[in-house]
Amino acid sequence: MDCVFCAIAERRLPAHCLYEDDDFIVLLDIFPMRPAHVLIVSRRHAPFLRDLPPALAERLLPLAERVAAALRQAGYGGQGINLLINDGPDANQHVPHLHLHLIPRRPGDLPALLWRLLTRFLPLGRKRIEARLQDEADRLRLILAKEN
Hints:
Elements: H1 4-9, E1 17-20, E2 24-28, E3 38-42, H2 54-73, E4 81-84, E5 99-104, H3 110-119, H4 126-146
Antiparallel strand pairs: 1-2, 2-3, 3-5, 4-5
């Protein structure tokens, strides 16, 4: 199966990759809900959570904890991070390839989050978002690299 995440894993498409290993890629969402919105993507094409082999599923949450710690160290989500898997099209999964969202939150950000939910795929402020993504990627890469 070929999809956008398979293409990113095979380096056929660019991405703001923060970390990778044999099983997962950690990257910034190009249509972020909040600053430093991160995705953990399985290298193996698995449309649903049930399709992920048990050995990989066991590694997903520990990796999410590591990434969450890096987010907090970088100043994102100090008081909370949403972990979200949209498991299937009826659950608003836009790409049929398993990925876990880590969405850093801050007090009072609900109105901005709801607005972004409605407008995230529109080209509003794209240059500003791209510049922010590059800055976030640089900061988070440094933190995750130090942990190895």
